[in-house]
UniProtKB/TrEMBL annotation:
Its EC number is 3.1.3.48. InterPro entries: LMW_PTPase, Ptyr_pPase, Ptyr_pPase_sf, Tyr_phospatase_low_mol_wt. The active site is at C9, R15, D127. It comes from Streptomyces albus (strain ATCC 21838 / DSM 41398 / FERM P-419 / JCM 4703 / NBRC 107858). Belongs to the low molecular weight phosphotyrosine protein phosphatase family. Residues 3-153 form the Phosphotyrosine protein phosphatase I domain. The keyword Hydrolase applies. Coiled coil: none annotated. It is an enzyme of class 3 (hydrolase). Keywords: Hydrolase, Protein phosphatase. The keyword Chloroplast does not apply. GO terms for molecular function: protein tyrosine phosphatase activity. This is protein-tyrosine-phosphatase. The lineage of its organism: Bacteria, Bacillati, Actinomycetota, Actinomycetes, Kitasatosporales.
Length: 162
């Protein structure tokens, strides 16, 4: 059974799809894409069925990543099939832990930037939605740094399972 990861932000059109796409690319680069599945969702359903924000797509493609994505809302019943739920900021962390059916599921929720040793105390990935393209570029930079550490942690989990 694959190790399953879900990235969660507010509307699932900026930060969480960016994290999902970067993580999937790194999994493929490392040959782990058959052992680990990744997806993303939003805490709310405002954008369900929409593609990623055009600025997200622009920044991802400029960095060599694909930009295909459809937004969806996170559901409490998903906890049972997920190994790790990665919140993109503290607000998402609180919402997801409150949504968790029990303590074991709440323990699956972590902040993505907690995997970036250089992040310090600021573990939120800044929301670029209300700003310009620079915010999306900064978001990608934060995501890429955190994904490096996440990949190491997930690799260790997968190895431990086998």
């Amino acid at each position: 059974m694959p190790y399953r990861v879900c990235f969660v932000c507010t509307g699932n059109i900026c930060r969480s799809p960016m994290a999902e796409i970067v993580f999937r690319a790194r999994l493929a680069d490392e040959g782990l894409d058959t052992l680990v599945e990744a997806d993303s969702a939003g805490t709310g359903g405002w954008h369900e069925g929409d593609g990623a924000d055009p600025r997200t797509v622009e920044v991802l493609r400029a960095a060599g990543y694909p930009g295909d994505h459809l937004a969806r809302q996170f559901r409490a019943e998903w906890f049972s099939r997920l190994d790790l739920v990665l919140a993109l900021d503290r607000g998402h962390l609180r919402e997801l832990r409150a949504l968790a059916p029990g303590p074991a599921d709440a323990a699956k929720v972590r902040l993505l930037r907690s995997y970036d040793p250089a992040a310090g105390a600021d573990l939120d990935v800044a929301d670029p939605y209300y700003g310009g393209i620079e915010g999306f570029e900064d978001c990608l930079d934060s995501v890429e740094r955190a994904v490096d550490g996440l990949l190491e942690a997930v690799r260790a989990e997968v190895k431990e399972r086998s």
